[in-house]
């Protein structure tokens, strides 16, 4: 039995009804019998004790850093990576271009051009690959990727390993942080790396706030007003993403309230849920998935 904490689109039922799906009026009895769970990471902790037969978890979200991995060592976990790639890539470029041209700033300032420059993209999964495609074909940019693996290697002119961050950062006219948050990436962009950005670099974060050290990005932006920083993701305080930051006081900053993905668009959410259902159907039918989560990355 598949248990979903959200009402699924009709397309999902077409894919999954052959396995048995319950997505409304859930009872404790339903949960006790459920072997497969579809939900958001933030809801998992409250459901685990009620689902003793749970063996497979499919998240609706691309990011899984909110999951209680210490309690999931015997559960197969699949993310929804790639489901929000186009929407988030659009948003990343919206921030980059708004900063380059200083949109909505009530004073005349120098504008930057991205055409023909170099884009450095940290994280080359679905989102990073979509950002790279726009950079390469939309702005004729050289694209440098930094990642353990590359989902669409054809969009990257240079492919570097995460151990080569110090080599990559100084190359970027625009640097995009599309990293997932795990034990390797938490705080990876600290002052020591941020200070390597060349003059007039634009840095955009659409991954997770905690991949950048908050105090260090504020410090470097104050020290170097030629740098510009945009983010859709902020740092967590007391377990919740907190959008209050002194970054808003800086002229060389632009931000949005984590609206790049599904939270601000019903259609994006619908497509993402269908993507999660399709991934789950492939796994249950053929044992195939592109989104298996390595729990060791988080423990």
Automatic annotation (TrEMBL):
GO cellular component terms, A-Z: cytosol
Domain D-isomer specific 2-hydroxyacid dehydrogenase NAD-binding residue range list: 80-260
InterPro entries membership: D-isomer_2-hydroxyacid_DH (IPR050223), D-isomer_2_OHA_DH_cat_dom (IPR006139), D-isomer_DH_NAD-bd (IPR006140), NAD(P)-bd_dom_sf (IPR036291)
Xref: PANTHER family: 2-HYDROXYACID DEHYDROGENASE YGL185C-RELATED, 2-HYDROXYACID DEHYDROGENASE-RELATED
Protein species of origin: Metallosphaera prunae
Gene3D superfamilies xrefs: NAD(P)-binding Rossmann-like Domain
Protein name: 3-phosphoglycerate dehydrogenase
Pfam families per the UniProt record, alphabetical: 2-Hacid_dh, 2-Hacid_dh_C
Family: Belongs to the D-isomer specific 2-hydroxyacid dehydrogenase family.
GO molecular function, one term: glyoxylate reductase (NADPH) activity
Lineage, opening ranks: Archaea, Thermoproteota, Thermoprotei, Sulfolobales, Sulfolobaceae
Organism domain of life: Archaea
Ranges where the D-isomer specific 2-hydroxyacid dehydrogenase catalytic domain occurs: 9-293
Keywords: NAD, Oxidoreductase
């Amino acid at each position: 039995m598949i248990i979903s904490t959200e009402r699924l689109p009709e397309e999902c039922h077409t894919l999954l009804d052959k396995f048995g799906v319950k997505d409304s009026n859930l009872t404790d009895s339903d949960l006790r019998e459920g072997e497969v769970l579809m939900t958001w990471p933030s809801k998992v902790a409250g459901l685990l004790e009620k689902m003793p037969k749970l063996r497979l978890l499919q998240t609706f979200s691309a990011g899984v850093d909110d999951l209680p991995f210490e309690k999931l060592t015997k559960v197969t976990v699949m993310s929804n990576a790639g489901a929000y790639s186009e929407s988030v890539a659009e948003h990343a470029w919206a921030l980059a271009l708004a900063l380059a041209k200083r949109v909505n700033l009530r004073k005349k300032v120098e504008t930057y051009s991205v055409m023909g420059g170099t884009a450095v993209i940290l994280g080359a999964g679905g989102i990073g690959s979509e950002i790279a495609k726009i950079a390469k074909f939309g702005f004729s940019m050289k694209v440098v990727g930094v990642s353990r693996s590359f989902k669409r290697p054809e969009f990257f002119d240079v492919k570097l390993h995460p151990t080569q961050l110090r080599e990559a950062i100084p190359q970027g006219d625009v640097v995009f942080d599309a990293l997932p948050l795990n034990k390797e990436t938490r705080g990876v962009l600290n002052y020591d790396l941020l200070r390597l950005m060349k003059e007039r670099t634009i840095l955009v974060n659409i991954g997770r706030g905690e991949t950048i050290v908050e105090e260090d990005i504020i410090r470097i932006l104050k020290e170097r007003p030629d740098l510009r920083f945009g983010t859709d993701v902020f740092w967590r305080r007391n377990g919740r993403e907190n959008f209050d930051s002194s970054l808003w006081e800086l002229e060389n900053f632009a931000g949005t309230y984590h609206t790049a993905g599904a939270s601000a668009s019903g259609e994006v959410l619908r497509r993402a849920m269908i993507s999660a259902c399709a991934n789950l159907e492939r796994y249950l039918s053929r044992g195939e998935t592109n989104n298996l989560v390595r729990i060791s990355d988080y423990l």
